[in-house]
Write a structure and sequence with these properties.
Blueprint: H1 3-20, H2 22-36, H3 43-56, H4 60-72, H5 77-110
Helix pairs in contact: 1-2, 3-4, 3-5, 4-5
Length: 119
């Protein structure tokens, strides 16, 4: 799967929904900002939790969004693999297959752009 293209297409679908339900989307965005603000747990830790839930709920777009955020927050591949191990332990076989998708997304989002600049 091309995770960049997948999230671009997902963004377009969400944009179409946003145009029809702006108040719902505004509320969702507000909730997301509040949930991810730094507090006792930092944003990166909260994104790890969100990724685990995304894997458990088998949400491809959620995996993409949270992995992309983790790359932005400086997540390393070894950190991601440890989170995927816990998600696999808690969710067994299905979580292993979705964890593998998360690892693939990480590799794509953390690779340099074709022009050599970071993502």
């Amino acid at each position: 799967m091309d995770w960049h293209k997948f999230l671009e297409e997902t963004d377009a679908r969400i944009g179409a929904f946003h145009s029809k339900a702006p108040e719902t989307m505004k509320g969702f965005a507000t909730m997301g900002r509040a949930a991810k603000r730094n507090g006792v747990l930092d944003e990166k830790t909260k994104e790890f939790v969100a990724l685990g839930i995304a894997i458990a709920s088998r949400c491809d777009s959620c995996i993409g969004y949270h992995v992309r955020s983790l790359v932005r927050l400086g997540c390393t591949r070894p950190e991601l693999i440890e989170v995927l191990e816990v998600a696999s332990y808690m969710g067994a076989g299905p979580s292993i297959t979705y964890g593998a998708k998360a690892l693939e997304a990480f590799d794509q989002f953390s690779a340099p752009k074709p022009d050599g600049t970071p993502e």
